[in-house]
Amino acid sequence: MSKALARVKRELGPEAVILRTRTLRRGGLLGVGARQVVQIIASQPRLAGGDFRPAEKPVAAPLHPPPENPTPQIGLAEDVRQIRQMVHRMIRLQVTQPRPDLPDALFNQYLGLLEQEVGEELVEQIIQATLTQLDRTQAGDSQIVRTEVERQIAALIPAAAEMSGPAHPEDARPYTVALVGPTGVGKTTTVAKLAAHYKLRRGMRIALITLDTYRIAAVDQIKTYAEILGLPLHVVATPEQMTEAMVRCRGLDAVLIDTAGRSPRDGERLGELQRLLAVARPQEVHLVLACNVSQAALADAIDRFTPVGFDRVLFTKLDEAIKYGVLLNIARKVGAPLSYLTTGQEVPHRIEPGDPRRIAQLIVGEKL
Question: Model confidence at 136, in pLDDT bands (50, 70, 90)?
Fold first, then answer.
């Protein structure tokens, strides 16, 4: 190790930054006659421009004197390529601290989580939890590590149980589900998907209620869905109309309520929404969030809609997401269970129950 460190200082200067070290064996035939070397990943300190200057190759020094005729290090070029790629990833992600505590397979997952924009505290939580679950041999197996990281991510996301069937309280109200959220997140399309699922696959008697009387043609859109599915539709704009609509729906299995896309900053309309939902008394209120906007916009929507009283979160437009780590960040911020995911606009398809394992798989690199 001392020889390797001396070579680092000689080639990169006394202020070289050590990023990672490992011990490996090189040469020999089927393991016989191999020599042990220390490999150090290092870079020069930050330049005036603020970037690292990565070393062109790893610095390795033998722990024991090499044989007179060493076997050519055929795999060195690939090692150099992988190390250079890792250093560049670390620079891009602004990871300046070495992680000698992490085996290579887990270190790759660590960088992958950061690339997916999972919050740094959550990354550390996931990595440390993974370390405690794996022994040294398992921690060196890429597939085992990936599976455990997926499991740890999924454990951080609570899932809501899907509505199992009609619920008839003493007043014979149908099971009532409302979708709320910002403009443009796909609430109306999602209501239609849920209605099709409940009626066509579950055989439930469904009615639709829309509170969206602001958008041009909004009522026509949901009316078209209702006609195709053969469902009654009630248009509601006042608490009195909501009371009347709920009376007409008595005896049905479920009611789905589509709400207008309020801007999170429209306090007056959010107050109006609260009053209408107070009359409907839904058993479930889903906050609908689209995955194709920034994390800051999602966090703002959560804060603004919290007074409405949602108890579930529903992610739409996963097919338009660029980084999936934001889903984990937001799920943790919401603190409400995940109900459904949508992956496109097609009705009645492209909707699935909110399985935390699905999000975990996307975060670690599985395709949608």
Answer: confident
